[in-house]
Structure formats: C-alpha cells, structure tokens
Fold each of these.
Amino acid sequence: MSANLINLLIDATWQTLYMVAVSAALGTVFGLPLGVFLATSQRGELLSRPLINKVLGLVVNAARSVPFIILVVAIIPFTRMVAGTSIGTTAAIVPLTIAAVPFIARLIENAIREVDSGLIEAARAMGATPLQIIRKVLIPEALPSITLGLTLAVVSLIGYSAMVGAVGGEGLGDLGIRYGYQRFMPEVMAIVVVILIVLVQLVQTIGEWFAARVDKRAPKGRGQ
Amino acid sequence: MSDRKIQGASIVFQSVGKAFAKPGGGMVSAVDDVSLTVDAGAITGIIGRSGAGKSTMLRMVNGLERPTSGKILVGGQDVGAAQGTALRAIRRDVGMVFQHFNLLASRTVAGNIALPLEVAGVPGARIKARVADLIHRVGLDAQADRYPAELSGGQKQRVGIARALATEPKVLLSDEATSALDPETTQTVLELLKDINRELGLTILLITHEMAVVRDIASHVAVIEGGRIVEAGKTYDVFTAPQHPTTRSFLSGLTGVTLPAFIKGKISDTRPARPCDEVIHVTFAGKHATDPMLALLTRDLGLQVNILSGAIEEIGDQPFGNLLISLDADRAAEARAYLERHGLLTQGLGYVG
Ligand SMILES: Nc1ncnc2c1ncn2[C@@H]1O[C@H](COP(=O)(O)OP(=O)(O)OP(=O)(O)O)[C@@H](O)[C@H]1O
Ligand SMILES: [Mg+2]
C-alpha cells in the first residue's frame, strides 16, 4: 500500500474522531439539560411544566424520526448559517450535533427516570431546591446509566459520520466510498471497515469501564 | 459529642383532612378530620393498618403533602401554608427516616450524611466536623467511606438516622424505620432512637404497624383507622385499658393475650349446662402489676386457678402484665370482683368445659 494511501487513512481517522468528538460534546451540552428537563417536567414532578414538556417531547420525536441522510440535506441552509459553509468536515458537525441532541436527551431522560423516587422524596424532606435535587441527587445517581447512554450515542455518531460525505464531509466513511467503491479499491474499503470496528470496540470498552467505575450499587448482580 | 441539647418542637394537627384525586375522577380521603397534639420532646407512635393513612399524616408534617383541610403546626408554624424558602427552612427543622432508607448509592456513608448540610449551604469545614460527629454517634466510624451497597440494613438505617439529624432538627419523623429490619436489628435501631430522644431532646413522631415498637419506645400512641384517630393517649393507658376494637386487635398480637391453640378450639361464648370453666383475661397495671394476685386469690377464696398464658412487660419503666386464666365458672364472678377490687382489669372471654 502506498504511503499516500496510509496518510489518507490517518487523516480520515482524525477527521472522523474530530466530527464525532465535537458533535458528541455539543450533543451532551444541549442534550443533558434537555433530557433532565424532559424527565422532571411532567405534571406533578419536580419542575412540573406539563405544557412545555409536551411540546419539547413532540419536537424531540419529530427530530428523531427524520432519517439522518435527509436531515443532512434538509438543514443545509441552517448549516451554512452556523458554520459559514455547508461543505466540509466542520460543516458536517452541524447535522451530526442536531441528530445527537434529541437522541442524547432521550437517553438522559430514561437514565434520570430510573432513579428511585424515594431519593427525590428524601432530598425534598431535607429542604433541597429542585435544582439541588437535580445536581446532587438525580445526575450523580443516574451517572452509570448516563455513561452507558453516551457510549451508545458516540457509537451511533461514528455510524452517522460515515454518511456526511454526501455533503462534502470527510472522514473514514467518505474515504471508503470514494476509494473503495468509486475507484474500485476493495482493500481500502476493508481497512476502513476494520478501523471503524476497532473504534467502536474502543469506545464501547472505555464507556463500560467508566460506567462500572462510577457505579457504586451492589457490586455483583443487579438484584436490588 | 458537640450536639447541644435542643428544644423539641410540638406538632399540632387541627382538624386535618387530606383527600387525593382518584385517577378516574373523584376524590379518595386518606386522612379525615384528625386532631392530635404531639408533645414536644416526647416519642409518639402512630399505629394503623396498611392504607390507614399513617404515611400521609406524617408527610404532612414536613409539607411533602399539603392538607386539603385543617392546619398542621410544627413549633407553632403553619406548615400547610408555608411555601418556597419558608417551607424549606421548616424542613431543615424536621428530619425524616424512611423504611427503605433512601440513601444515595453514589455517595459514601459520610457523603450521604453530608448531603443535608450541603443543601443547607453549610461551609465545607463545618460539614466535615459535623459529619464525623454524627458518624460517631450512630456507631459507624469504621464504615465512613463505605458505600450503602456494602452495608447491612441496620447500618443503612443508622446512616438514614444520622442524615436526618444532620441539620439539628427539632422533630424527627420515622416512617416504618424498622419494618425492613430483623427483630434484633430493630431493637438496636429503636435503642438508638431512644438515646437520641433522651440526649438531644427532639420530638420523635414515628409510624408503625407493630405494637411492639410502640411499647418499646413510645410514651404516647395514637391509633389510626380509615384516616381517623380512633384512640390516643399515653402508651401505658392505651395498653392497659384499650377502648377501641382496633387497638385491642393490635394488642392481641403481643404475648400473653393470645389464646393458646388448645383452648381456642374449645372455647364457646355461651355457657354450657355441664360444669365448666370460664376463661378470663386479666390485665395487671400500675402498682399492682407485680403483686402475687393469683396466690392471694387462691388463699382468700380457696379457688383453683389454671394459667393459660401470660407475660409481664414494661412500658417506659412501668411494668404491666397480661394473663389468661381459667377457673370454675360458678365462682368466676366472685373471682373477677375480687381482682377488680385489687386494681386489676378483667374481661371474660368465654367458657371451656
Ligand atoms: N399520592 C397519592 N395519590 C392517591 N392516593 C394516595 C396517595 N397517597 C396515599 N394515597 C391513598 O391514601 C390512603 C392512605 O395511604 P397511606 O400511604 O397514608 O397509608 P399507610 O397507613 O401509610 O399505609 P402503609 O402501612 O401501607 O404504608 C390509601 O388508601 C392510599 O391509597
Ligand atoms: Mg405508609
């Protein structure tokens, strides 16, 4: 294999990592508060804003039902507005983030809902404010699930990032299509697939390791 | 121990009612026109069956539920009317322990106990000192850095109690704190609550469905049934002279009041024609509790008395006893009059023969 090709693979790997890392980070920045709000704003709950909860829930569902490749194309004007261009790796971060936010929000919402309501009750009995309950009880208690949820989100983003070649985003997926498919170099396609498998395995392993570290519940089995 | 003695607060329920909206529409009444005064510095038990409204009553004391009618005053402050910051300030004065502990799995013992102090905005250095004190008080020095998953039920409840005491409350609420514990651990946790009450002087209001818990630590008791208080008073008085059938049925679970199986099968309410014995429940109380009454009965009336079951117990530091005896039905009235004259309570349960 030529040195040129190896350089291309290295560059593409970095581009993928860059897109996934930035969109996952931005997705968490926006998805975490959204998820916490969705989990705590139904009627009678901590923040009880049933109307806003309904509306946000609908928006999240709508965003999640659009296939990613269509989302990428549909929001091109918005991407241009935010990133200054609608073409390239940095521009690709915009649709990736927009796909990540509702996905991560739902994962966080589920993680927060799993927290035993007795803990909220105990915190209320202490005189905690809703914000204190979220910061000191809900998020720390949900952290093992949140970590696993974010791991899943990153793995999905690696998959999505392969599709952004359609709007000139680069990265491993784009390289695989251009060389492996269009230029008929199946070995490039094979290497790209292997790198993607290794990346996903790595993310999964690191995610699970973190989740286990922050999980202080019963060490073996999840009986209780 | 740096705990200063605090003045416990009284809790007053004034015609308190609480109704919940039913999912299908309409209301279900959980607590109905309850008036009760819980003395400052005392340990008061509320006993009732499942669904009687115990938890609802307790949860109104720290504003976790709001009454739909009436008022609840804690140390003179109207909890039901308090909102926001004022309500949170009241809650810091009222600690609560739970049946299922409700500890944060993500925090160590020390971290759990620190939480109410963090919530109250106490500076870090003071939190550390206070937490160390509390851990010592509940006897968990060796477990300070353990996580709840590594503790036994009794140890978890000690953490729960320490956490409830962190903000130096004037009232401690306990919702079935010992119901998830084995009998031995229950005793040690009750002892801890008793010590805390004695040393710190705070008011303890606990709910339970076990008369033994009331007997062991409560100086006052209220019996709740269907959302209403059916009987209330000093534990000793309620135990020795229960008025309401619900109270009696709770008491029948205690030793000395249950008919042994061999009698239960044979006893009848109506007196048979043939010679027979009457079964009598005798309650010893007050200064006569330890008198040798049966010996005197035999000596003065020349009666033969069969003992079926019995026990002497202590409430606070006063002894009281329950005894089931049987004796010749022809002379039962005479024997009961004799015992009553000597300050005992008697109740005819039926005939065997
Ligand atoms: N949040 C609620 N919504 C609707 N009904 C409720 C609610 N909380 C309690 N109830 C009802 O009020 C009644 C009293 O409940 P409560 O929990 O106070 O009983 P309890 O005496 O504590 O029972 P247990 O011993 O089972 O804990 C029950 O009929 C219960 O179904
Ligand atoms: Mg209850």
Amino acid sequence: MLRVENLTKYFGEVHAVDNVSFTLEEGGVTSVVGPNGAGKTTLINLISGAIKPDAGRIYYKGRDITGYPPSKISRIGIARSFQIPHIFLRMTVLDNILIPLFSRKGLSRNLIKRATDYPEVLKSAEDILGSFGLWEKRNFLANELPHGDRKLLDIAMALAMEPELVLLDEPTSGVSIREKSRIMEIVEEAIRERGVTALIVEHDMDIVFSYSEKIIVMHQGKILAMGSGEEIKRNKEVESILMGGEV
Amino acid sequence: MSNGGGLNKIVESLQKNQYYFILAVIAVLFLIPSVSSRYYIFLVGLALIYSIWALGFNILFGYTGLLSFGHAAYLGIGAYTVALLMNKLGIMSYEVLLLASIASSLVISMAVGFLCVRYTEVYFALLTLAFGEFFFAITYKLYDLTGGSDGMSVLYPTFLGQQMNLTSLYYVIVIIFIVSTYVGWRIVNSPFGKTLQAIREDPVKAEFAGIPVKRYQWYSFIVSGIYSGLAGALYAPLFAHVVPDLFHWTTSGEVLFLTLIGGYRFFLGPVFGAVIYAFLRSYITAYTIYWPLILGLSVMIIALGFPDGVIGSIIRFISKRISRR
Ligand SMILES: Nc1ncnc2c1ncn2[C@@H]1O[C@H](COP(=O)(O)OP(=O)(O)OP(=O)(O)O)[C@@H](O)[C@H]1O
Ligand SMILES: [Mg+2]
C-alpha cells in the first residue's frame, strides 16, 4: 500500500530521516518507536507532504506521490494527526468535523446552502464524533475541550477524510497514564471498525506491544529494526536504545 | 464551558426574536426618507455603503484571517468604474453601471488577490497596501482620463429608465444593503464560509483536511473585492464626485477601524461599526477639527479595552448578567 524508498531529510547537520526504506501492507497497525529526536515526526511529515524530502521517493498504491501538497495527499487517501493537536479552536466541535467531511465530499466550495443543511454529512459527523465520545460535546467550542478530547478530535478529523491509511503522531502524548489506555482503545476501535491501515508513532512500549502487528524502531534517523512485537522484544540492541532513550 | 453555555443562551434568545428585529430595522430604513432631512438620508445611505464595504472586508479579515491594508482599492475601482463610464462613454443606466463595477472589481481583485495570497501575514498586508497605493498613483497621474487630483463629478444615473434622485438612490442602497447582508450571512454559514474560518484558525490543519488553502484565500479575496466594488458603485453617485483619495491607504484604514469598532468576530459587527463611524464622524467634524485625533484615540481605547468591539462587549456584558442569576 505504501512504499518508502531511501527517504532522506536533513536539517542542517541533523540527519532527521536518513535513507529510510520500508513497505506497509494493507490492514493492521504498524507502530513507529524510538527515542526523542529519532525522526518519527519528520517521517510522518514527509509521507503526509508537510515537508519535502531531500532525497528518496514515496509510493502510495504504486503511484509516486513524492512532492504532492498535503491537501492532495489527504484527498487521495492518506490522512494524519498531530503530536500537538491541530484543531480549529474558535469553532464548535461539530464544525471541526464538518470541515474535513465537506472537503472529502467535494462540498467545500458550496457557498449558499447552510452547512447544517446536509443531512448525510451530519450523519457522518454523528457517526465519527460518536465513535470518539464527542457527539455530546458537538456544540462546545473546541477551545473548551480538555487536552485528551483535543487529541481525540484531531484524530477524528483525520478519519473524517475517510482515509485508507492514517498516520497518527503520538495519539496519547501529553495525557495522563489513566487516560492513555482509554484514548488508545477508542482510536484502535475507530481504526479497525473502518478498516483503515494505521502507522502510529508511540512512546509507550506497553501500548505499542499490545496494539501493533508490526513495529518499526527508529534511531537517529535510521531504521534500526523492523518486525513483530516478539521479534522486537528479543532484539537486544533495540532494548538498550529504547531503555536509554525513553523519557 | 459555562461561558459557552451563557453565550449560547443569548444567541438562542436573539435567534428566536431575530425576524421581528430584522423586520423592524428594514421598516425603519424604508421610512427614513419620508421622515428625515436630505442630510440624514445621505448619512444613513453612507453608513449602509460603509456597511457593505466592511462586511466584504470582514469576510477576508474576520472570517479568513487575512488583513488587507489596501481595501480602498476595490471601493475606488467600483466608484471610478461608474464615474468613467458615465463621463467618458455617457452610460447613465445604473443597472449597467452596477454590473460593470461588479465586473471590474471582480477582475482586479482576481489579479491582485492571486499575487497577494502567495504571501502571509505582514507581507500580505504590505502587498495589498502597495497595490492600493499603485491604484492611487495611477488615478492621480492619468489626468486626461481620470481628472487627476480634481477627480470627476458623477450625476444621478437612471434606473429602469427613470431619472434617479437622492431618495431613489437611497432605496437602491437599502435594497443592495439588505441583499448583500443576507448573502453574506449565507456565505459565512455555508460550507465555504466554514472552510474560510477553518483556514483562519489553522491553515496547516486545513491543508491536511484536503483544502488548498491559498486557493480558498484567493476566493475569499475575490468575494471581498466584489463587495467593495459594489459599495464603491453606490458611493460615487451619493457623493456626486470621485477623487483619487478613495484609493488612499487612509481610506483603507477607515474600513479596518470601523470593523474593529463594531467587532470583527461578529457577523454584524462591521455594520454596527459602520453606522457608529458614519454618525460619529459627521457630528464630531461639525464641532471640532480634531476628528483624526478622536478617531485615533477611540481606536486605541477599543483595541486595548474592548478587543471584541461594541457588539462583543455588549454580548459579554449581557452574558455576565445572565450567568450571575
Ligand atoms: N523543522 C525543523 N528544523 C530543524 N530541525 C528539525 C526540524 N524538525 C525536526 N528537527 C530535528 O530533527 C530531528 C528529528 O526530529 P523529530 O521531530 O522527527 O523527532 P521525533 O522522533 O518525532 O521526536 P519526539 O519523540 O521528541 O517527538 C531532531 O533532532 C529535531 O531537532
Ligand atoms: Mg515527534
């Protein structure tokens, strides 16, 4: 589904992503782990079109999408969420989810009909916000939401693009340990229910081992190891880096 | 969250009575010519023209988050389109003149907007300012065509074959004001309008929601330009004269000031600002020559003390009273 070849991005002297190659098969959850600064966010930024690589290519379903703008990539089936949630703060939760839904359905240009006069779009909004426990809060302004809900809304907006592949950058960062598992359960169910393939960056190894079919370990911009949870657990080098680098 | 709840309650109660309120305002607007002097007909007409202009300005500023510092240009283009077609080609039909102003402001704002949206924030503002001054300079220089600093006089045009006068022009202004306010309201509540607001809130996220941000900013610029051009086409015959100052940055400053006075976060904020501005200016300039000083001071007070403008402050005040109960 996704093939990344020799992907490289330098920031001055920093080799943020360094000659990275891998393929993702359709279905399931793949996790990307690695210490702070390993290049995980940069990898997501590259695939989602937020930044352009210095070298290497990205293929999605056989199509070379290297250099596509984010608006195009998100419409052909790759959506993403952010480590620090990006939501439309002074708009309601409902409006937040309507924006990607309109965009997905090609309705964003419609300038006379009321945004709330689209029953089928509202139905999708209810469906998605419902899965994320946010439907009851649809009339709140997004800036009234607590951090955990903001993270969920950010991810819900990505899924509203009806992607086939979703890239989630640390869905549980900045939330309490107790809330982490709640958020991961919601996210996992939402993803699996919709049959979306997921690439998830995550720090918490317990979460990683319990939710992912495949794990990619990054360190200093390079892929150190790739494999199932069992294979990664057995890898001594990975263990030392993850333990040493964990914050 | 109580704040959101309080605000919602006020919005709800306003919504319940909104039709009566709107009908009352429309009735008053239509009654003005039969109860007031020529001066007040002129003044209210002017306030409504400012309103149309500011509503358009605020689609770009308040809704899309782009500060244009050259919005006088499109007002000027609308006004000069009327003046030029009337003086040079002898076209007197207001129907034609209005359509021509819409067309010219559409074309110019498409061209200028296309270049300006490539830049962000202060560079965007500077570029719009530069274009405004460019139009100022050429109307000033092209003496043979535009009359240079003398400007051009504008007569009352004809409408549906009838010779217009102040009263009939006033009615046309009222009708265009009502229609453009209604259309503006529909726009900001449409998927397109919501998309503009999303771009204002977080252009990065909007891009990842599949929205080509620059293109939508451009669309917003064009809509805003058409509103301004239309306002200019109404302004020319009301003032009976056009001068290059219409394009000047100080004129661009006016639309920003009155939008801030009214409250850019509220759809009707610019309308309130326009009415307050038009009346205040006419009274204050009648009594003192210090109008620019007073204007400057009031903008400072509003910027520092009432960032949500008049409407915002009123709503906040009422919502506090309600939530205290
Ligand atoms: N825009 C940028 N400009 C300069 N350097 C950057 C930029 N983005 C990332 N870097 C650097 O690239 C390296 C990789 O950063 P990245 O954010 O991808 O790491 P990460 O694995 O996501 O880390 P974390 O776990 O802290 O989120 C870091 O050294 C970082 O400082
Ligand atoms: Mg990161």
